[in-house]
Structures are given as C-alpha cells and as structure tokens.
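Lay summary. Proteins are chains of building blocks that fold into shapes, and those shapes determine what they do. In this project we predict the shape from the chain. Here is one chain we studied, written as its sequence of building blocks.
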Amino acid sequence: MKDKFIRIVSPITLCVIFALDAGVLIYGAYAIKRLLHFPNTPVILFAALDVAALILAIIVTKEVFSNGIRFYDDELEFTSLDENNIFSYDSIKKIEISKDDSISFTKTFIDRQSQIILTLNDDRVITIELGITTKNTLKKAATEIADRTGVELEEIKPEKKSKEEE
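And here is the predicted shape, written in a compact code that computers can read:
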C-alpha cells in the first residue's frame, strides 16, 4: 500500500491558530506603517517583537498541521506523540474508537475527546487521545488503520450517566 498521512486537527484549535496568525499579521502591517511614518526606537522595538511573533506563529502553525497519523507499508505512526508512537500492523489485534456526541451541559472538554483504542497481540491496551476532532476525522483514521491491519473496527458507545452520578 502507498504511504498516506491523515491530518488530525481540532476545529477549535484551527480557529484559535487562525485568529492568532491573523492578529500577528495585522500587528505586522501596523508596525510597518508606523515604521515608515515615524521611525523611532519604540516603533523599531515593536516591529522587532512582531517579527519574533511572526516566526513563532509560523512554527506553531507548522506544528499544529503536522499532527496526525502517518501510514507506511508495514507500520503506522502517531506524529503527535513523542514516544511509543509507532505500531506495526501485525501487532494490532483489536481497534476500537470512542467519541461522545451526546448533548450535555455537564460534560467537560475531556469528556468530548476522540479516542482510538488499540489492543496489541501481547494484550496491552493503548489509548490514543486525538483531542476534540470531528467524528468524520476519527472514522477516517480508524477505518484506514482497520483496512491496513485487516482487523474489524468496533465503535464504543459512551455510557450515559445517571442523574445520581451528575
């Protein structure tokens, strides 16, 4: 099979990154305008800080868009994890996905996280938190893993809390 990359980006993270990048660009335009009309020390410092912010914005945006799952011929890699992020297709015994879409005002962001749960041949269970992603992205990633491993995909429905637990 061909190498493939599925980008996993939270819609909330995407909005925040675009807002911050837009702010840096707007301040950059303002700094250039001020620098052309009133070139003094505070304006030069402001422009220098904006250049640093622009470099930081580029690095952060690149990092956000580099997170995902990279599929190779015989293994997959979760690029958002620092270690223990590469799994051989042969070592995966079971694949489960979980995402809570039910309506509730009492659930936090952590309750809404997308998860891929891999059971390996040595009975280790690895839960990979993908963050707040769309269900479509979660299913696309999990289906690709299932297709490459030859294992059936299972969806876990979150348990509903009783009123006593809330």
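What the prediction tells us: The longest strand covers residues 92-98.
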